[in-house]
Every structure is written in C-alpha cells, then in structure tokens.
## 1
Amino acid sequence: MTDIVLSCKDLGKIYGTKQNQVQAVTGVNLKLQKGKFYCIIGKSGSGKTTLLHLLAGMEKPDSGTVWLNGVELSQLTEVSLARLRRRHMGFVFQDYQLLPELTVEENICLPFLLDKKEIDFDWLKILLEALSLTELQNRYPTELSGGEQQRTAVARAISQRPSILFADEPTGNLDKKTSEELLDFLLKLHRKYDLTILLVTHDLDIARCGDEILLLEDGCLKTVMKADEK
Amino acid sequence: MLILENILLAFHSLRANKMRSLLTMLGIIIGIASVIAIMTLGDSLSKSVTDSMSSMGANNVTVGLQQKSTTTEVTGSGMTFSFGPRMTKMQEKDYVTEEMLSDLKTRYAHSIEGYSLSENIGSGTAQHGAKYAYVNAEGVNDANLKNLDLTLLAGRFLTERDQKEGRKVVLVSDLLVKNMFDGNSMEALEQTVDILFKNRYYTYTIVGVYQYEESSMGFSSTSEEDTETMMYLPLKTAKDQNHNTMGYSQFTILTASGVSASEFCDTVETYMNQKYYSDNNSFEISAMSMESIVKSMTEMLSTVALVIAAIAGISLLVGGIGVMNIMLVSITERTREIGTRKALGATNGSIRLQFIMEAIVLCLIGGALGILLGIGIAAVATKMMGYAVSPSVNGILISVSFSVFIGVFFGYYPANKAAKLHPIEALRYE
C-alpha cells in the first residue's frame, strides 16, 4: 500500500457576504498517495484554485480538515505552517511569480534562504540540468521566455525536495508547444524522483498525462478516475 | 532569511528605483548634513580656540579695565528715562600702576608667579636697504616673553639689561629674515633695521631670530612676502616710544602651579576693585581666565548647536515620513512578490525584517551621504574661517545611530503592513 501524503475531509470554503454567499468548495474528501501525479480539472469558477489553496494551507477552510504527512494544518501556528510550506510543499503559479531582482539561480535558491539553510549545490546542479536551465542560471527573469520562466519556477518549487508539488495552471500562459515541453519536464521529474504532483488545469489533454484526474463541479468533487479511463 | 541577503535585496530594490530612492533620502541627507556640519564646525572651532588659548597659557588670568555698567536716570515731565553707560576715555588715574601690581604680588605671593606685560606699538614696515617686511611691534617683559614660548633660531632673547635700560633691540621672525636677509639668520644678527611707524622711522638692532608659526586662527590668505609677523622689543623701549607713563590697561597674571585660574579671577577682581576702583566712577577691574573664556565660548556654541539640532530634527522627521511613504508605495508595488514569498514559506517576521532592512539601508545611505556632505560643508566653512577642520566623531556616531533609528521607526509600520498581507490576496493583487 502506498503512503498517503495529503488528505482532507469535508473540506469547505464560502466566499462573500451573508446575503451574497458563494460556496467555492463543498465537502471535498481526498487522499493523495505518494509519488502519484494528480490533475484537478473543471470549468472556470468550479473551485479548482480555491481547493489547491486550501490543501496548501494558504487559505483557512470554513469547514473540514487537511493533513499533510499526518500533520493537521489547522493546528499549526503561522510560523509552523510557513516552515511546513518551505520544507514540504512546492508551488508553481500560472504567472511564474519569479522575483525580478534575482537571477535564475537566486530565484531557485530562494527557498533555501527563506529556510536559513545552506544551499545544496549538487542538487541545484541536477535541477538546472534536468530543466535545461544551466545556460540561463545567471540571467534575470525579464531576459527569459515564458517557458524558461516557468521551468525556473518549477526548479524553485522542488529545490527543497518537497513532499508534494502544487501547480496552479502552470501552462496557462504558455503556447501549446511550450506547454507540452513543460509537461514533459514535470513528468520526467515525477518519474525520476517519485514526486507527488497536484496540478490544476482546465485542459483535458494535459490532465490525461496524470495518474488520476479529479473532476470538480461547482466546488464539489464529482469523480476521481484513472487518466486512461477518460 | 539571512540579514546579508536582506541587505543585498534592499540594494537591488533601491538600485531599481534610483531617482525615487535619492529623492526619498534628501530629507535624511539634509538633516544629517546639518547636524554633522554644525557639530564638526563646533568641534573645530572649540579645538582651535582651546589650542590657541592653551598655547597662550591655560593657567593665566587676564586682567583688564572695563567701563562700569552704570545707568543714568533722568526724570522730567513725570517720566523717567534710563541711559546706559557713556563711553569714557581712559585717564591717567584709571590705569593699573606698577605700585598696584607690586601690592597685588605681595598680597598673593603664593598664587602669583609673575606678570606678563605688554605695550603694543602697532603695525609698521621694516626696511633694510631696498628690502622690506611688515611687522607688528610689541614691547614685552620677561614673563610675557617666556609665556610666548618662542623657539629661538639664532642670537639671544631679550635680557634683563635690555629691559632695564630700554635698549633699542628686537627679536624678529625667520620669515622677516627670509624676506630681508635671504633667510640667513646669522647675517641678520646685529644688523639694524629702520621701521616706519606712523610716518616716523625708528632704528632697532636685531639680537635674535625666532621661528615663525602660522596662527591656527585668522585668515592666512596673504603671501609670505606680505605676511605681517610679530617683532618683540623690551617693554620699557616700547613704553618710551609710545610716551606712555600712565600704566597698563591690561595685564596677565601667571599663576603658580596648583592655583585654580578661574577661582583666582574672582579673588583678583574683588581685591583690586575694593582697594583701587571703588571710588572710580568710570572703570573697574575685570579678570578672566582662559578656562572661563573657553567655557563661555563653548556655551555659546552649544546654544547655536541646539538651534541647528532642532532644525535638523524637523528635517529628519520630514525625511523619516518620506521614507515611510516610499516604503508604503514600494510595498503596494511589490504586493505580489510578498504573496510569492509567503507562498514559498516566508514567515511574517522575515517579511517584516526584509522591509525594515530596506528602510534602514535607505536611511543609512542617506545618513552616509549626509555625513560626507556635512563634513564637506564644515571643511569649506572652517577653511574660510582659518580653522583646522576636526570631524566630529560623536556627530558621526550619533548620525549613524539616528539613521538606523529612523529606518526602524519609520520602516516598521509599512513592514508590518507587508507582513500581515494575506498570501492569496497578495498573489491576486493586480
């Protein structure tokens, strides 16, 4: 039996005022296994990103509980949660979110600095090579293409060897060819390093690359299916 | 996050907005520059005054005659008018006589080592053949000459016999020798020089050459040829030449070691005023020690420094508000960056520290520029006044500390605002 990395029970989130409430996520139950590639799909406004944020502890749920490696997120202090995020979670955003004043290498090393840890240069070298960033390591984000920026963001997200990588529409700003390239890189990392990935997308073709697809409709998790079932 | 990384990030951020950072720093620069300039000026002035005072003798008491501060009241038509003292010309009865000096010395034999007496003749032109030099001639007694602490380069000092007989002999500076005798001091000795004072020539024989030292006070913009140097002659010779038989309007008491000059001032004043000047309606004795002169000068400087410090304080306050304002702008601009950092696991504390460090770096650069500008202004001002510049170490330390304080104080609120941002809202910020 495979280990459970992330799980949640009855997860719910409501936005808006009393008169104008929006149920973004409703009663979601999940168990994500170590080393698997999960894709959340759904229409715009179906609650995909909100669910990702709730699972990552970046937003507090109105109901339900989230566990990462058996640790209940709601029980953690702000500092402990930040530490957990630094050491056990990786994030890739749709619009890369690289720091413009830092080079590619410095951006990748940022989690080490935030964690006040010595930089693991051997791992850094492997990452740069795996994501074809070796030649670009001294460049600034403004000097990179969209695909290169997103690869840098992926390298930054896994620089601390996290338990899980959260990717929120990582190909949303990329053209088809670059999207496929990025996906190849993600799959390679997933297979080679047994990386657990939870990726949000509205593109079914991308979702098919994962091991399992989670279909979200109006904040409710409708189906969990094997990618090849779809 | 490491402090060093935060400092580097702060530099990155400031470099990205050079003009904005410079304009923000202006308030700090002006404030710190004013503090440093006034403190350096004060220190330089104080040091120069203290140096020259102590070269004149720290244990000396300068005694002089001053007009009594009496007021005259005139009553008429039911109204009373008060008039201040009228300037009165000194008469023979007003001067301090040799007898008074002897009496004082006898009365305070243990406290008085001697009197430094002088009689100034004034400025004139010394001539030897076709060559000339400018001099200021002053008659001095032995004690005064000793007090001057001159370095003799050739010949001899004035002797007791010179003083007693009122010989027409002089001590001249090596600068005069350079101008009139091609710098050959030995050749200058026993040579006569004609000195033109007030359209009359007087002839003196050079008996000694002393080393000229440029004063640390006063302008020194003239060339060596035009520099007026002191020429010392026996006191009696000078008095004879001035036809002065009246006494002294000023003299200096050389106090014995162990005597407090400032305390002795009061003793001398009281004694002489009670014994010799109680019936004198116009003049009285006033005694001052170098210590009290320096003290009153320092007090005056402190008052000026306080006023400037208040102005500088306002400037620093405005500068600090500017820093706070620009930090708030910077945080608004970098909201998404803050969101990213939080998503990557930055704690509220590390975000707060990052922006406080940025404010400190901004203020420290402003402070450093202010210190340089302040020293520059003080250097120009002291040079113009003829003093040696002496940068205020205390001022620099205070400025650096104050810059850090402004950074922390005015950077805290924006930094705290940044730290409290919700990561998701920050990431969504457009």
## 2
Amino acid sequence: MTTEEVISKLGLNSLSKFEHREVVGVFVSDMLSDVMAGAKSGNLWVTVQTHKSIIPAANLVDVSAVIITGGKKVPQETIDLATQHDIAILVTELPTFELVGKLYALGVVTQ
Amino acid sequence: MSDCQHQWAMVHLRFGFMVYERCSHCNSLRTHFSEEDVWDEYREGDCTYMVVENAQTFVFDLACTKCNHVEKYDNLMGLLYCTGCLPDCKVEILRQEYAAKRIFLLVAFGHVPETQTNRISQEKLDILTEHFNQRRDTSRSTVKIVPFNLIDKLSVCRGEFIHDVGMLSLEPPEERKPLL
C-alpha cells in the first residue's frame, strides 16, 4: 500500500508537499525518543505531536508519513520543514485509537 | 581490523531524562542522563547547580548483529538539527550543501562540559551515521552526523535537539533559548 492509497481510503488531509511512497507498517508514539529507537523505514508514524522537532525525528528514521490525529492544528513552520525534507504530514479529526483501528482494518500492520 | 560488514542495531536502551543544569554563581552549564526526573538543586564547591531543562530522551549503544561487536555511546548527549540561525556557520553552510544532495545533516553532542575536551570520535560518529542509513531507504536520501565543534558560536546557536521537551504540558512549546 502507498501513502496515496492510505490518504484516499481514510480521507486524510495532506499539509506538506511530498512524493508518495510505499507504506510499511505503523508506529504509534508521541515521543521522539521512542520513534528514534523503534520506528522503521516506511512506517506510518501516528502522533498528536505537532512541534517542528517531529520532522527531524521522522526524517532520521525515514517514516513514510506522519499522521497527526485529533484535529490538532499544525504550525506552519512544521509544515514548511516537512516540505523541505519531503516528509508527508497528514491530518485527521479522528482520535488515535480510531485511526489505528482503521489502519489495521486496511491491512496496514507492523511487520 | 575486522572485515565484518557490520549491521548495526541499537542495544542497551535506557529511557530517561537529559538534565541540563546551570550554576547560579558562575553560569556554567553541565548535562547528564538520569533515569529519574530530577529537579534538585545542589552545591558543589562554589557552584550551585539548578536544573534549567529536563528533556525526555534515551541512551543506547550499537551492536553489530553479525559479529556482536559493541560500540558504546555513553557520552552521546543528543543529536541536534540545524535551524539555519547563523548563515555563516560551518554547519549551516554544510547543511545547505548536503541538502542539495538529499543528505540530512545532524550534529552530535557529547555531555557538557566533558565533550569540550573529550569529543566523541569521528569513528563513532561514522558508525552512528552508518546505523541510521542502514535503517532507511537510502535511494531517497541519506543521513550524515557531524561533530558539534563545526558550530561557530555555540553560545548563540538555536539548533534544536531531538529531545522530548515539555511533554507534560498541554500548551505548545515556546521557542527555546540557546542552551549552550
């Protein structure tokens, strides 16, 4: 599955400019340290964090997209930094639990 | 010298806090890792150290999954990303140069003040770089980790560490002041 398919199937909104890519599993965490330690290349990172520091962390471990849940407002500087690094910032009004359930139902599971 | 084509993995992970302390007498800064959320003020000689920042983070070593060689990172305080605050800074110049080649630049810091005299070796930084590149799709971009001494003016650097600052606050984090 690709980021394009995930966006389309879950009705996510894209905030940054990026190239679509293959999605490999999901990583759920609101801590940068957790992501640096455990996320894998291609993972969708699901979080409520919106600070610009999520972008270097996402880039370091090469996630396929950052999905920000709960309708959180994302600062423009976070979006700009994401575009600069070709990182997908996707947002949804759904809470994390519901989004993760929908991802699981789509067959996007951590490998 | 080993001829193993190392495949690095993080081992000995410990989650905790990066504690930044400043002396109210001489203004010197020191950092250390603690598994506990400490905010205690203490005296040491003429100095009185108070915690100025307590960021959640983790420490780790790297081990080769093929030959079991372990590379220790006891003194790695954190990875900082350049925010381009000083256009003439060597790190900013390098960052722009690397960005054109789709290389993502990060700056490795050791603990203060030890790191100023006992820097993390280039070999260790290269291994750290290799580890993060092994974890990513390098056809898209790569990572390069450089030493902090490339930063021209540490005292005014507004680069930001990839640490979890203010995790317990519901308010958006304020712009951080230079810590060093």
